[in-house]
Amino acid sequence: MTLLTVENLTVSFPGRSGVVNAIEDVSLSVSPGEILGMVGESGAGKSMTGAAIIGLIEPPGRITKGEIRLEGSRIDTLPPEAMRRIRGRKIGAIFQDPLTSLNPVLTVGEQLIETIQTHLKLSKAEARTRAIDWLRRVGIPAPEARIDTYPHQYSGGMRQRVVIALALCAEPQLVIADEPTTALDVSVQAQIIALLRKLARETGVAVVLVTHDMGVIAETADRVAVMYSGRIVEIGTVTEVLTAPKHPYTAGLMASIPRIGPRPDILSQIDGAMPRPNARPEGCAFGPRCPHRMEICSQQRPELSGTKTKSVACHLTEGVPA
Ligand code: SF4
Ligand code: MG
Protein backbone atom coordinates (compact mmCIF):
# COMPACT_ATOMS: atom_id res chain seq x y z
CA MET A 1 0.00 0.00 0.00
CA THR A 2 1.16 3.51 -0.79
CA LEU A 3 0.60 6.32 1.67
CA LEU A 4 1.74 9.29 -0.38
CA THR A 5 1.85 9.56 -4.15
CA VAL A 6 3.27 12.55 -5.97
CA GLU A 7 2.85 12.53 -9.74
CA ASN A 8 4.43 14.90 -12.24
CA LEU A 9 4.44 17.70 -9.71
CA THR A 10 5.46 21.06 -11.14
CA VAL A 11 5.64 24.26 -9.08
CA SER A 12 5.97 27.51 -10.98
CA PHE A 13 6.72 31.14 -10.16
CA PRO A 14 6.17 34.19 -12.32
CA GLY A 15 9.59 35.40 -13.49
CA ARG A 16 10.71 38.58 -15.24
CA SER A 17 10.68 36.87 -18.61
CA GLY A 18 7.92 34.32 -18.18
CA VAL A 19 6.99 31.50 -15.86
CA VAL A 20 9.84 29.65 -14.13
CA ASN A 21 9.48 26.10 -12.87
CA ALA A 22 11.10 25.66 -9.46
CA ILE A 23 10.41 21.93 -9.69
CA GLU A 24 9.38 19.94 -12.75
CA ASP A 25 7.62 16.59 -13.11
CA VAL A 26 8.54 15.31 -9.67
CA SER A 27 7.07 11.84 -9.10
CA LEU A 28 7.58 9.75 -5.98
CA SER A 29 5.72 7.58 -3.54
CA VAL A 30 6.10 6.79 0.14
CA SER A 31 4.78 3.71 1.95
CA PRO A 32 3.67 3.64 5.59
CA GLY A 33 6.65 3.49 7.94
CA GLU A 34 9.13 4.26 5.20
CA ILE A 35 11.78 6.97 5.34
CA LEU A 36 12.29 8.58 1.95
CA GLY A 37 15.34 10.83 1.81
CA MET A 38 15.46 13.73 -0.63
CA VAL A 39 18.99 14.88 -1.27
CA GLY A 40 20.68 17.46 -3.46
CA GLU A 41 22.35 20.84 -3.38
CA SER A 42 20.64 23.93 -2.04
CA GLY A 43 18.14 25.14 -4.65
CA ALA A 44 17.63 21.70 -6.21
CA GLY A 45 13.93 21.75 -5.24
CA LYS A 46 13.90 19.41 -2.23
CA SER A 47 12.32 21.88 0.18
CA MET A 48 9.92 23.04 -2.53
CA THR A 49 8.74 19.46 -2.98
CA GLY A 50 8.26 19.11 0.79
CA ALA A 51 6.41 22.44 0.99
CA ALA A 52 4.10 21.39 -1.86
CA ILE A 53 3.25 18.11 -0.11
CA ILE A 54 2.31 19.95 3.05
CA GLY A 55 0.41 22.69 1.20
CA LEU A 56 2.79 25.50 2.10
CA ILE A 57 3.95 26.92 -1.23
CA GLU A 58 4.25 30.67 -0.78
CA PRO A 59 2.33 32.65 -3.41
CA PRO A 60 2.94 33.76 -6.11
CA GLY A 61 4.38 30.25 -6.44
CA ARG A 62 1.79 27.60 -7.22
CA ILE A 63 1.34 24.04 -8.39
CA THR A 64 0.83 24.23 -12.15
CA LYS A 65 0.86 20.53 -12.96
CA GLY A 66 0.57 17.14 -11.31
CA GLU A 67 -1.14 15.65 -8.31
CA ILE A 68 -0.47 14.86 -4.67
CA ARG A 69 -2.45 12.05 -3.05
CA LEU A 70 -2.56 10.92 0.57
CA GLU A 71 -4.16 7.48 1.01
CA GLY A 72 -5.51 7.80 -2.51
CA SER A 73 -7.22 11.18 -2.04
CA ARG A 74 -6.06 14.38 -3.72
CA ILE A 75 -4.73 16.88 -1.18
CA ASP A 76 -3.20 19.42 -3.59
CA THR A 77 -6.67 20.69 -4.55
CA LEU A 78 -8.05 21.03 -1.02
CA PRO A 79 -9.19 24.45 0.23
CA PRO A 80 -6.77 26.05 2.75
CA GLU A 81 -8.96 25.26 5.77
CA ALA A 82 -9.14 21.54 4.94
CA MET A 83 -5.40 21.48 4.28
CA ARG A 84 -4.77 23.10 7.64
CA ARG A 85 -6.63 20.24 9.32
CA ILE A 86 -4.54 17.69 7.45
CA ARG A 87 -1.39 19.46 8.55
CA GLY A 88 -0.79 18.37 12.09
CA ARG A 89 -3.36 15.58 12.10
CA LYS A 90 -2.19 13.58 9.09
CA ILE A 91 1.04 15.30 8.09
CA GLY A 92 3.46 16.71 10.63
CA ALA A 93 6.40 19.00 9.92
CA ILE A 94 9.88 19.44 11.33
CA PHE A 95 11.93 22.36 10.03
CA GLN A 96 15.58 23.29 10.26
CA ASP A 97 15.26 25.99 12.87
CA PRO A 98 13.30 24.83 15.92
CA LEU A 99 12.57 28.44 16.88
CA THR A 100 10.35 28.92 13.84
CA SER A 101 8.24 25.90 14.83
CA LEU A 102 7.82 26.86 18.48
CA ASN A 103 5.86 29.74 19.95
CA PRO A 104 8.19 31.66 22.31
CA VAL A 105 5.39 32.96 24.54
CA LEU A 106 3.79 29.58 25.26
CA THR A 107 5.29 26.85 27.42
CA VAL A 108 6.34 23.65 25.72
CA GLY A 109 3.47 21.89 27.50
CA GLU A 110 0.86 24.42 26.33
CA GLN A 111 1.97 23.89 22.74
CA LEU A 112 1.95 20.11 22.96
CA ILE A 113 -1.39 20.00 24.79
CA GLU A 114 -2.99 22.38 22.30
CA THR A 115 -1.81 20.30 19.34
CA ILE A 116 -2.93 17.05 20.96
CA GLN A 117 -6.35 18.45 21.84
CA THR A 118 -6.84 20.03 18.40
CA HIS A 119 -6.39 16.70 16.68
CA LEU A 120 -7.24 13.96 19.16
CA LYS A 121 -10.33 13.73 21.36
CA LEU A 122 -8.66 13.89 24.76
CA SER A 123 -9.35 15.81 27.94
CA LYS A 124 -6.83 18.39 29.11
CA ALA A 125 -5.53 16.04 31.80
CA GLU A 126 -5.17 13.19 29.31
CA ALA A 127 -3.47 15.50 26.83
CA ARG A 128 -1.02 16.60 29.52
CA THR A 129 -0.16 13.01 30.37
CA ARG A 130 0.31 12.35 26.65
CA ALA A 131 2.52 15.44 26.31
CA ILE A 132 4.76 14.32 29.19
CA ASP A 133 4.98 10.90 27.55
CA TRP A 134 6.09 12.46 24.29
CA LEU A 135 8.74 14.59 26.02
CA ARG A 136 10.05 11.42 27.62
CA ARG A 137 10.03 9.56 24.30
CA VAL A 138 12.07 12.24 22.60
CA GLY A 139 14.60 12.18 25.42
CA ILE A 140 13.81 15.30 27.46
CA PRO A 141 15.05 14.66 31.01
CA ALA A 142 12.58 15.22 33.88
CA PRO A 143 9.64 15.86 31.54
CA GLU A 144 7.16 16.39 34.43
CA ALA A 145 9.11 19.50 35.36
CA ARG A 146 10.26 20.63 31.90
CA ILE A 147 6.76 20.62 30.47
CA ASP A 148 5.96 23.97 32.10
CA THR A 149 9.06 25.77 30.83
CA TYR A 150 9.48 27.94 27.71
CA PRO A 151 11.35 27.10 24.49
CA HIS A 152 14.17 29.58 25.25
CA GLN A 153 14.99 27.56 28.36
CA TYR A 154 16.06 24.64 26.15
CA SER A 155 19.29 24.08 24.23
CA GLY A 156 19.12 23.89 20.42
CA GLY A 157 19.20 20.09 20.42
CA MET A 158 16.58 19.83 23.18
CA ARG A 159 14.38 22.31 21.31
CA GLN A 160 14.56 20.19 18.18
CA ARG A 161 13.50 17.20 20.30
CA VAL A 162 10.48 19.21 21.40
CA VAL A 163 9.72 20.04 17.75
CA ILE A 164 9.83 16.33 16.93
CA ALA A 165 7.42 15.63 19.80
CA LEU A 166 5.15 18.39 18.49
CA ALA A 167 5.23 16.95 14.97
CA LEU A 168 4.40 13.43 16.17
CA CYS A 169 2.02 14.02 19.09
CA ALA A 170 -1.12 14.10 16.95
CA GLU A 171 -0.07 10.73 15.52
CA PRO A 172 0.24 11.79 11.87
CA GLN A 173 0.84 9.23 9.13
CA LEU A 174 3.52 11.30 7.46
CA VAL A 175 6.16 13.75 8.63
CA ILE A 176 8.04 16.17 6.40
CA ALA A 177 11.42 16.85 8.01
CA ASP A 178 13.33 19.61 6.20
CA GLU A 179 17.00 19.72 7.20
CA PRO A 180 16.05 18.79 10.78
CA THR A 181 19.64 18.69 11.98
CA THR A 182 21.38 21.30 9.87
CA ALA A 183 21.15 24.09 12.47
CA LEU A 184 22.54 21.85 15.24
CA ASP A 185 26.03 21.10 16.49
CA VAL A 186 27.60 18.12 14.77
CA SER A 187 27.63 16.15 18.03
CA VAL A 188 23.89 16.68 18.46
CA GLN A 189 23.01 15.96 14.81
CA ALA A 190 23.65 12.23 15.07
CA GLN A 191 21.50 11.97 18.20
CA ILE A 192 18.56 13.70 16.53
CA ILE A 193 18.87 11.52 13.42
CA ALA A 194 18.98 8.38 15.57
CA LEU A 195 15.92 9.61 17.46
CA LEU A 196 13.97 10.26 14.25
CA ARG A 197 14.79 6.83 12.93
CA LYS A 198 13.83 5.16 16.21
CA LEU A 199 10.50 6.99 16.41
CA ALA A 200 9.68 6.23 12.78
CA ARG A 201 10.23 2.53 13.49
CA GLU A 202 8.22 2.64 16.73
CA THR A 203 5.24 4.65 15.51
CA GLY A 204 5.12 3.49 11.90
CA VAL A 205 5.03 7.10 10.70
CA ALA A 206 6.39 7.67 7.20
CA VAL A 207 9.04 10.38 6.83
CA VAL A 208 10.10 12.52 3.91
CA LEU A 209 13.55 13.63 5.01
CA VAL A 210 14.97 16.61 3.13
CA THR A 211 18.72 17.02 3.51
CA HIS A 212 21.80 18.13 1.58
CA ASP A 213 23.82 15.52 3.47
CA MET A 214 24.27 12.11 1.84
CA GLY A 215 25.68 10.86 5.17
CA VAL A 216 22.35 11.55 6.89
CA ILE A 217 20.57 9.66 4.09
CA ALA A 218 22.88 6.69 4.47
CA GLU A 219 22.19 6.48 8.19
CA THR A 220 18.46 7.09 8.11
CA ALA A 221 16.58 6.54 4.88
CA ASP A 222 15.12 3.40 3.30
CA ARG A 223 14.89 4.98 -0.14
CA VAL A 224 16.39 8.12 -1.60
CA ALA A 225 15.43 10.61 -4.30
CA VAL A 226 18.37 12.62 -5.64
CA MET A 227 17.29 16.02 -6.95
CA TYR A 228 19.13 18.29 -9.34
CA SER A 229 17.88 21.56 -10.75
CA GLY A 230 14.21 20.94 -10.01
CA ARG A 231 14.05 17.30 -11.07
CA ILE A 232 14.60 13.87 -9.58
CA VAL A 233 17.64 12.43 -11.35
CA GLU A 234 17.85 9.16 -9.45
CA ILE A 235 15.49 7.39 -7.07
CA GLY A 236 15.69 4.00 -5.45
CA THR A 237 16.51 2.04 -2.34
CA VAL A 238 19.37 3.48 -0.32
CA THR A 239 21.26 0.22 -0.69
CA GLU A 240 21.05 0.28 -4.49
CA VAL A 241 21.63 3.98 -4.97
CA LEU A 242 24.48 4.28 -2.49
CA THR A 243 26.34 1.13 -3.42
CA ALA A 244 25.95 1.56 -7.17
CA PRO A 245 25.02 5.14 -8.09
CA LYS A 246 24.00 5.30 -11.75
CA HIS A 247 23.75 9.06 -12.22
CA PRO A 248 27.01 11.02 -12.39
CA TYR A 249 25.59 13.60 -9.98
CA THR A 250 24.74 10.92 -7.39
CA ALA A 251 28.21 9.47 -7.82
CA GLY A 252 29.66 12.92 -7.14
CA LEU A 253 27.53 13.41 -4.02
CA MET A 254 28.54 9.99 -2.76
CA ALA A 255 32.19 10.73 -3.20
CA SER A 256 31.77 13.83 -1.05
CA ILE A 257 31.18 11.68 2.05
CA PRO A 258 34.61 10.30 2.88
CA ARG A 259 33.33 7.42 5.03
CA ILE A 260 31.09 6.16 2.24
CA GLY A 261 32.51 7.34 -1.04
CA PRO A 262 34.49 4.57 -2.64
CA ARG A 263 35.88 6.91 -5.30
CA PRO A 264 37.15 10.17 -3.82
CA ASP A 265 38.36 11.14 -7.30
CA ILE A 266 34.82 11.92 -8.44
CA LEU A 267 34.36 14.87 -6.10
CA SER A 268 36.51 17.18 -8.19
CA GLN A 269 34.34 16.31 -11.16
CA ILE A 270 31.30 18.13 -9.85
CA ASP A 271 32.93 21.51 -9.75
CA GLY A 272 30.72 24.29 -10.99
CA ALA A 273 27.26 25.42 -9.98
CA MET A 274 23.73 24.25 -10.52
CA PRO A 275 21.94 26.36 -13.13
CA ARG A 276 19.26 28.79 -11.99
CA PRO A 277 15.73 27.64 -12.78
CA ASN A 278 15.42 30.40 -15.39
CA ALA A 279 18.67 29.43 -17.11
CA ARG A 280 18.58 25.66 -17.39
CA PRO A 281 20.49 24.40 -20.42
CA GLU A 282 18.81 22.40 -23.17
CA GLY A 283 18.89 18.66 -22.64
CA CYS A 284 20.38 17.43 -19.36
CA ALA A 285 20.61 20.19 -16.74
CA PHE A 286 23.68 18.49 -15.24
CA GLY A 287 25.43 18.50 -18.63
CA PRO A 288 27.73 21.49 -18.06
CA ARG A 289 29.17 19.81 -14.94
CA CYS A 290 29.13 16.23 -16.16
CA PRO A 291 32.43 14.46 -16.93
CA HIS A 292 30.55 11.89 -19.03
CA ARG A 293 28.58 14.28 -21.24
CA MET A 294 27.82 13.04 -24.74
CA GLU A 295 26.38 14.77 -27.78
CA ILE A 296 22.83 13.65 -27.08
CA CYS A 297 23.01 15.14 -23.56
CA SER A 298 22.74 18.73 -24.77
CA GLN A 299 19.96 17.88 -27.24
CA GLN A 300 17.56 15.66 -25.37
CA ARG A 301 16.53 15.72 -21.75
CA PRO A 302 16.98 12.29 -20.16
CA GLU A 303 13.73 11.00 -18.64
CA LEU A 304 13.57 8.89 -15.47
CA SER A 305 13.41 5.24 -16.33
CA GLY A 306 14.29 1.99 -14.67
CA THR A 307 12.86 -0.70 -12.47
CA LYS A 308 10.42 -0.67 -9.58
CA THR A 309 13.22 -0.26 -7.09
CA LYS A 310 15.48 2.13 -8.96
CA SER A 311 15.16 4.77 -11.69
CA VAL A 312 17.70 7.10 -13.27
CA ALA A 313 17.46 10.07 -15.65
CA CYS A 314 20.68 9.85 -17.64
CA HIS A 315 21.67 8.96 -21.19
CA LEU A 316 24.44 6.69 -19.90
CA THR A 317 22.55 3.43 -20.20
CA GLU A 318 25.12 1.45 -18.24
CA GLY A 319 25.51 4.09 -15.52
CA VAL A 320 28.72 5.85 -14.49
CA PRO A 321 31.72 4.05 -16.01
CA ALA A 322 33.90 2.37 -13.37
FE1 SF4 B 1 25.90 13.39 -17.87
FE2 SF4 B 1 24.56 13.05 -20.14
FE3 SF4 B 1 23.90 11.64 -17.98
FE4 SF4 B 1 23.39 14.26 -18.11
S1 SF4 B 1 22.52 12.68 -19.39
S2 SF4 B 1 24.24 13.14 -16.40
S3 SF4 B 1 25.17 15.00 -19.20
S4 SF4 B 1 25.83 11.55 -19.10
MG1 MG C 1 16.02 23.69 1.52
UniProtKB/TrEMBL annotation:
One cellular component term from this protein's GO annotations in UniProt: plasma membrane
Membrane topology: Peripheral membrane protein
GO biological process, one term: transmembrane transport
Domain ABC transporter, residue spans: 4-254
Pfam families named among the record's database cross-references: ABC_tran, oligo_HPY
Keywords on record: ATP-binding, Cell membrane, Membrane, Nucleotide-binding, Transport
Source organism, top-level taxon: Bacteria
Compartments (UniProt record): Cell inner membrane
GO MF annotation terms: ATP binding; ATP hydrolysis activity
SMART domains, alphabetized: AAA
InterPro entries referenced in this protein's UniProt entry, alphabetically: AAA+_ATPase, ABC_Ni/Peptide_Import, ABC_transporter-like_ATP-bd, ABC_transporter-like_CS, Oligopep_ABC_C, P-loop_NTPase
PANTHER family: DIPEPTIDE TRANSPORT ATP-BINDING PROTEIN DPPD, OLIGOPEPTIDE TRANSPORT ATP-BINDING PROTEIN APPD
Similarity field: Belongs to the ABC transporter superfamily.
Official protein name in the record: ABC transporter ATP-binding protein
